[in-house]
Amino acid sequence: MAVIKKPKKWIPQYEQIIAMNDDKINVLILGTSGCGKSTLINAILEANKAPTGIGEAVTKEIAIYQNQVLPFRMIDTVGFEYGIFKQNRIKRDIAKFSMEGVRTSNVEKLIHMIWFCIDGTTKRIDQEVLGYIKSVTNSWKNVPVIVVFTKSYSRVEISENINMAKAAIDKYNTNHRRPLNVKDIIPVVAMEYKIDNTVTVPPMGLDVLINRTVELVPEARAISKTAIKEIDLKIKNSMANTLIASAATGATVVGAIPLPIPDATILVPIQTSMLTGVAKIYGIQDDASNEIINTILKVGTTTMAGRNLLNAIKAIPGINVAATVLNAAVAGAITLGAGEVSNVLFQKVYNKEIELTTVDWDAEITNLFEDYLPGIVDALKKLSIDSNGKVELESIGKVLAALAKSFTKDNKNKQKKK
């Protein structure tokens, strides 16, 4: 059993992000154009920091608003309309914005809570709207939601709106496996509104909204911690598999070239560079990863796992058409298998599921190779069948690269089940 010295002060990135996030939480504000989001922000801040207007969308991009007093930031978004294309664009923008926050450890771009603003004079909240709330922050599952009815000028309409919203939310949650975590429905009037020369509606509900948001801070922070970890792993998993796909394609090319020296002379540096790169993605230093990398290379090429792969690929009809094709398939498949084994292992180390100093790496790595190699062989078999036995080198590279990307989703699903 290998004994590896654990790096000093090694902390997973998601824990660093969470540790930094001790000051304010971030409230994402969603709503249709003209519902009063910017007016609400100005009223909460008690300063004209957000642009307001009449008759057109005035927020052109995602913007962050805060002051020294409030324990939360407000993230304003472009107003969405009842159209699938506009909604999808906003969802992509928010996903990119928040994932960038996790990737760069920018706490101002994380999401902890949602205020979903609805114009109280429209009396409208349907299932499409509720589905939008959930899907727009798909990565930030179960964050607390407060439904905010803006422009709540009529006491009769306030009562009707609250009852209507409760019924719609109950219906949605009954019909969907992952319910909306709606914590409250709060009517507000953000600024004084003149109905006529004699009747004026004063601001109302802002203190209730602020107090309720502050009450939910501990829960919002706890839920966001889980989301941060999942997003961080998703980013790293995707980066690792992009690197693995490139290395597998490169190994396929090298394996197909008749060389006067053993292919391993060139393949080993490709594989070592790939494995070192995966380790760095997960923030694991060289002194902690070298023993694991050496064991992966040994298991993948010299042990039962490597021999099983070679025999399985040789048995595929069509792959044996030419020695170059066979060599390319073996080289690419071993590289892909080694990459995926490293991705799983370094992810486990990153998640603190296994300790660097207490693992039988030979056994762990051999088991992982046995898990991944059948899928690689099956993909090559399918390629041979689809091409009627006329397998081309370019096709092998494409299949292995696509398979590496598919492992991103597989690894994500495995993490969900834990």
What does this structure look like?
It is a single chain. This protein is α/β, with parallel strands linked by helices and 418 residues long. It has a six-stranded mixed beta sheet with strand order 2-3-1-4-5-6, sandwiched between helices. It has two domains: 13-215, P-loop containing nucleotide triphosphate hydrolases (Rossmann fold, 3-Layer(aba) Sandwich), CATH 3.40.50.300; 233-417, no CATH class. Helix 1 runs antiparallel to helix 7 (217-256), helix 8 runs parallel beside helix 11 and helix 9 packs across helix 10 (304-314). It is 58% helix and 9% strand. Mean pLDDT is 81; it is low at 1-8.
Give the topology:
Blueprint lengths: L12 H8 L4 E7 L5 H9 L17 E3 L6 E5 L7 H20 L9 E7 L7 H10 L8 E6 L4 H21 L6 E6 L5 E2 L5 E2 L4 H10 L1 H40 L7 H18 L4 H17 L1 H11 L8 H28 L10 H26 L6 H25 L1
Parallel strand pairs: 1-3, 1-4, 4-5, 5-6
Antiparallel strand pairs: 2-3, 7-8
Helix pairs in contact: 1-7, 7-8, 7-11, 7-13, 8-9, 8-11, 9-10, 9-11, 9-12, 10-11, 10-12, 11-12, 11-13, 12-13
